[in-house]
Amino acid sequence: MDKxxxxxxxxxSRALTQWEKNYLGRGSLSVxxxxxxxxxxxxxxxxxxxAEYALCKDTEGMIPVKEYRNGLVxxxxxxxxxxxxxxTNFEVCSFxxxxxxxxxxxxxxxxxxxxxxxxxx
Length: 121
Hints:
4 helices, MpsC, elongated, DUF2294 domain-containing protein
């Protein structure tokens, strides 16, 4: 791979931020991506709106917000997989995501078909 690990991690973060703005209509406040063996782990902060935080004060509001937000990301998973493939030359074999309704942080894990981290050795 021509790029350094840090450069690719930054590129993944930029690409996901752009995807959020294009697909979801707004981006997170900060994004950090880490490559670990055959995974890319992405932490996105500042996902929830003030209204969503207000709804999440009790379980009755938290569950629908969590389901809705996860559903939005899941509906764009094919695009996300294409972005990762184009940046890494590895296909995504599985995708995991969850959001904390307390902190407004989303974690995304892309499990790849090969060990991306080894390409930097």
